[in-house]
Each structure stands twice: as C-alpha cells, then as structure tokens.
Design goal:
Length: 760
Amino acid sequence: MLVNLTRRNLLKGSAAVGGFVFGVQSGSVGLMNSVAEAATGSFDAGLYVTINNDGSTVITCARSEMGQGVRTSLPMIVADELEADWSRCSVVQADGDQKWVDAGQELDTDGSRSVRRDIKRLRTAGAAARMMLEQAGAKKWNVPVSEITSQNHTVTHTKSGRSADYGELVGIASGLSVPAESDVQVKDRSEWKYINNESAFTPDKYVDLMDMTTGKGIYGADVILPGMKTAVIARSPVFRGTVGSVDDSAAKAISGVIGTVEIPTPELPVAVKPLGGIAVIADNTYAAIEGRNALNIKWNDGGNEGHNSSDYEGILRNSAKNPGTVLRDRGNVDALFNRAGKIFEREYYVPYMIHTPMEPPAAVADFKNGKCEIWACTQHPIWVRDTAAEFLGIEKENIKVHVTLLGAGFGRKSKADFGVEAAYLSKELGHPVRVVWTREDEVQNGYYHAASAQHIKAGVINDKVVAWRQGVAFPSILGLWVPDQKIGFNIEHGLGYVDMPYNAIPNIRMENGDADIHTRVGWYRSVNNIQHSWAMNTFVNELAHDLGKDPVQFQLELIGEPAHIDLSQEGVSDYWNYGDPIDVYPIDTGRLANVLRKVAKVSGYGKRKLPKGHGLGIAVHRSFLSYIATAIEVAVADDGTYTIPRVDTVLDCGMAANPERVRAQCEGAAVYGNTVARHGFISYTDGSVDQSNFDDYPISRMNDAPLNVHLHLEETSDVPSGAGEPMVPTFAPALGNAIFNATGKRVRNFLICLEDILNA
C-alpha cells in the first residue's frame, strides 16, 4: 500500500515509532535508529527502509510514479531481499531533499534507468536489513547466526524452532554494527520471490493502482492549501517574446479574479526556467482562465518571429545532406562511393512533436518566512528546487519539494518551469498559489521533440553495401543551456546514431549538420532514438527492396556476425552509452540480431498468408541499453485508412525486475508509438505554434489503437537495462514498412496519415 497523502495530511509531518532505518549511501550500507542516535557506521537519515516495533515496514521510493509502476517495482526489490511480508509494507515518496543527492541517489526519473541504476543499492539495503535482523535473533537466543533463517517477516532458529517477528527484534538490531558492503549477502537468484516473478503480484498488491482508478490519488493540481489562490499564465506565443504592454482592466472585472502579476522573462540561457508572462490570479481555475482570455497584451517578439516550419524543414534537409561535423568515421567512405556500382540516397523527416501527458503540468507553492514548499507532479524534484532557488534568489536549502503522482510525464515533467512559476507567484503574493497549465498552454508553450532531417547514402558493389554516409540535422537540447549551439552533443549522438549497428559495412561516416534553435526543445519519450530508428529502418527496407532481397535477411547481413562494436576505434571518443559502463553494456550485435530473428519467427514473417490489403513490417533498434524488434501487421482499406490488427515486440532488456510492468510498458509504447507516427505534428507559422488542443493535435483513440499487442521477453543478460522508452522507436518504421508491403507506397515523412499514404 502507499502511505495515503490526502489533502488533510499533506501538511502533516510523520515520525517513526520506535524502529530503525536502513539505507545505502554511494554503494555503502548504513543503519540508524529512527528515535535515537545513529548506529555505528550509519549515515544521515534512513533512505530506504524503516521497520517499526510493531513490525510495520515503510519503504521509501526515490523515483516519481507516472503510471510505470515504479512505486511497486523498486520497493518490491527491497522487500524481496528483506524477506518482508508485502502485506505489512507501505511505500512513501521521497521528497526533493539534499540527503538523497549526498547519498548518490538520483531523484530524476527519466532515461529508463530507475531499475538498472537502483537495483544494486536496493538489494543491498534489503539484504543488510535482513542480515542484521538475523543477527538480532541470534543474539536474542544466544545461538550462532549460521543457525538463523528469515522468511516472511519472521526470524527463526532452525534447531529449536523458536521464532520472532521483525518488530520484536528492532531494538536489538538497532544496537548492532552495520555490515560492510563486502559482507552483505544478497539472495541467489533462485531464492527470489518478487523480483523477476511475473506471477508474484496480483492487481490488489500494486501500489497506487486502486487510488489511481478510484480517483483517490493526489496529482499536482489536487493539492489544496489553506488560503490558496489559482493562477494561469499568458505566455508569449513566440519563443523568448516579452511583454510590451498589458491592459488587465477587463480581466480584473471578472468575478473571482484577484489581480495580475508579471513573471519576468529570464536571461539566457533559458535552461528549464519559466518563459515569463502575465499571471492572472483568481479564486478558482475557471475565473483565472476567463481573466486571461480578457487580457489585452502586446508582445515584443524575441527574435524567433520568423520561424516557419515549411522553411525550416528545407533548411534541415539541406544541412543533413551537405557535409557536417564528422562524428564517426570508419574506413574510406569517399573512395568506396567512387568505386560503387550503385548509389542509393534517401531523405527522411520528423516534425516537431509535443508530449501531451494526460495531466498537464501543475504545481502548488507556499512561500513564507524566506522559505518555500513546492508540491509538483515532477520527474526531477532537485531540478525544481535548484531552479526555484536561483529564480527566487534564496538558498536551495530553504526550498522543499514534494513529489505528487504524475499523470504521465514522457520527459516533459522533468522540466522545472511550472514549479518555479508557482514558487515565484507565492513569493510575490504572500500566500499559497497553484499554477495550472491548460492543454492549450502545453501544446503552444511546452517543450518539443526536435524536428530533424536525415540523409542516408549507400554505395553497393555486387549487391553488398560497402559504404554508408548518414547526415542528420536538428536543434539540440543543449541549446537550452548554450544558446548558440549548432549541432547535437554526445548524449543526442548516442541515442541510436553514432552507434549505428550495421557492423558488416566496412566504410561508415556519421555527420551532424548545423541547425539554429527557435523554440524550447527537450527530451521526449525515447528522444532522438525516434528519428534515428525511423530513418535507418526505413532506408534499409527500401534498399533491400531495390536490391531484390528479403528485408529481414538483408538487415541481418548488415548487422553481421556477433560482435561488440568498439566506437573508440572509429573516432568516437565521447560515446555516452546512456551514462553506463561500456564493458557492462556493450553494443552487442549478437543480441540485436537475436531479437530480429525472434520477432520474425513469432510474427510469422514470411510464413503466413496475409489477407488482401494486409502487410507485415519489421524494425529493430538498440536503445536505452536494450535490444528491441517490432513486427506490425497493418490492414489498409481502399480509401487509404488503416488499422493495426497485431503488434509483436521482442524485448531483450536483460533481467526484467517486474515483467508484468514491462508488458504494460510495451502496451503503452504501442499506443504512444501509434500516436507519434500517426498524429504527432507540431508546425510553426511566424514563430507561433499552429496547434492548440486534441482537435488539431490528436492522440490515439480506441478506433485507431493497435488491437492486439504481444510482448516476447528475451533475457540474455543478468543486468537490467531500459524498458519504459526503448519500445517506442521501432513502432513507426515497422508501421511504415508494413504499409509499404500492403500498398507498395513508401512514406518517408514521419507522419503516416491518410494523406501521406494516398499521396506517396
């Protein structure tokens, strides 16, 4: 269960009742008495586990819950190693507190890294607590600890049959020395009962599930404080625009409107700070929106008023096609192009897209006596804290950030702007303020997945690809911090681009062309993997068709024999590898080829006869250290409309800690991938976003969502990798390839809509 954070007790503190607290700091184990002095070898505050005298156990989750089940998956790892009775465990959400940073714990929930980054420290914390409880039992009965076992919240002396509940032993355990990390004995994999066990949890055991489905959960906009006012903000339609003049008299005349406050436009770099604008303060959200509609604002354009999508697409295409900054260079591409008997060239384009989480951003702040508390649906509470401190001009130690439930995030809610807006307005007004973003606000003033163009050129001799040159151009996320940034940086390059997996091609050059930045771009579920997978998988499919080869066999041919690609030998000195060691997570072409073969098999590729108008397409990609292949069956009607009867995805994410949640992520990725491939399109006219809500920026609905989604889990490594994001990038190219196989029409622009199919 989740410790219930109701409106009534949101402001109430909690205290442990006579127990002890376990945690891990920078890989070390620590223990402290929750009501007395810290035990020997302990560190500041318990991070993960509190066991009270009555045996009740509280596990703290340091990642944000946004529907991915992280407040079940991470605590169950602790509970498994602890040998805890799950029915006696509750879960609390970590605040954005410095103690977590000091302990080496990441609080930002993004990059599909929660399990892979936390599993070791969580297993260690649970196992250390279990060992100390076993030692307490041995001391209680004056027997060797080798004769002690633990199971289901109970410590037992095997020879005498004596047993004690965990709660009975916390007093003794609190006085014991903490085991050294090297002495902590985690369970053997065969002993797991929760981890990697798909049948371990029924729906009633999942944290948050009932609250989410019954409306009891507390999200960003649900927090209510005494005396709280609501604000909505008018922001410039053009990025970096500022307020020239404002007439708020009509707004103030609306019932419920209290007044207006100008939020300053921050100096460059914009980073994740607010955009600025005019906030309308009111007693309720409706009055605030109506007040904003009544404002008469003249904006000073911020230098991006000439940004038009159609022109920008042409600029990006030219930049990708022309020579750019060389990121990876193998062999002699130019020489082989000169010798090649056949040259194939194609261009691909992906437009701007917006996240559209179910819950738009919302935050509540209460500033008083030089300190500020913030409640926000945030993926990154530390970023909210630090940015608010800078914006308000106070020490970060004077800000506390509480993390509510998130109604999805997709990377949007890792940005701090909406929490900072609430903090600034509370400081200015002297009472609590809730900032609400409407859907229109999010679509027109959010952070966007970068538009991108890619140009791929392949040289062929005797039906073998001997040279590959790929150029890409896109506005870089780094531009939020470095305003004159023209190309991407190593993180963006490492998202399925410089690590292009076709190892059998002897000559490869990957380049990045210049692109100016005209809006806020930010990470988006799967980030640059989307466009890189789209271009590569589509191009390889096209090339196979032109050469008269089977696309799957041709792709396997390009991948080559099983190997670990060493990019350091090809001019890539700063390969990011998702921030994890390359020796633990190598670029493994064998695993990539394996999922490709497997998806062909489970989907019946080339084996089953498809009805008229049906096509089966496949795509494969490595992202977030996982290996993914997706097969999509599409049914295209004579009028160009299409449905998706079946999706098969093979995922090799190493060890899946919670396979059921991974399956849920796969289903969500299919719906999300369908949205971005079918509907995702943001355009600009004179610097302003053309779209505003779901009427002109639709998302997948029941009538066009995939009908059957099947996940086939492969496990070829003991270490976990990503699961939340990696299954998105293969969806669009598999769909595009399926449509080609069904109709003979090739779509190279990312938006696979009716018009694209008819006009292809």
